[in-house]
């Protein structure tokens, strides 16, 4: 049976909320249960690439080349230390992609075309996870246009709900104009601190607004999670037993459950 990969955009216009950490560790957990996963690093900072051990000098082809120069994603994917997990690295030049594509009226569809081609060339891939940059510009909108569903990491802090309504409006706009099939996979609470009253208050608010769109699993704040990237590996490989890694394993099973239902 030939089926298309499920494409998930990991997005939130705020920086430092756990997008990249979620992309890396959710992908690792998916690969661990037998999925073949490609992470597309769409943040010019390239943190997902670094966190998976692909240094700047190894980034011979990047997502910029795929997006702007039609280089096939299949030719730029790099192996990682995780079996069945591949990454399409990002470079700083990606920061100029929106300007470089300004004259292309089809620019929002370029990533979708690149992923469709990847699916045809690499039929083994079952999941594509896109690590979006901290903005709602072309790279994020193009990711949502290419995606089946959006997964929003949300840090439980004071302005979390304002940020959430902004990204929800963007999802609505993309659905109306560019990708009618787009769904919200879910919202994952990140860097959750159960001793902090604010975390609990924000959690209650978000759950009241979005109901079961919020995953049951919250990712706890965990020092092992923050140490892992400097070792160039996912937290799941660095310390599988830590609370953060275990939370990502649980999140993966919720994500798979929703994808099977979709
Ligand atoms: P984003 O991609 O949204 O900018 P990151 O995933 O890079 O966010 O996370 C921001 C910072 O917070 C990083 O230094 C990361 O290691 C750290 N971090 C993310 N999740 C956790 C967690 N659950 N516990 C502790 N630190 C975390
Ligand atoms: Mg990031």
From TrEMBL:
<dbReference type="InterPro" id="IPR027417">
    <property type="entry name" value="P-loop_NTPase"/>
</dbReference>
<dbReference type="InterPro" id="IPR050678">
    <property type="entry name" value="DNA_Partitioning_ATPase"/>
</dbReference>
<dbReference type="InterPro" id="IPR025669">
    <property type="entry name" value="AAA_dom"/>
</dbReference>
<protein>
    <submittedName>
        <fullName>ParA family protein</fullName>
    </submittedName>
</protein>
<dbReference type="Pfam" id="PF13614">
    <property type="entry name" value="AAA_31"/>
</dbReference>
<feature type="domain" description="AAA">
    <location>
        <begin position="6"/>
        <end position="183"/>
    </location>
</feature>
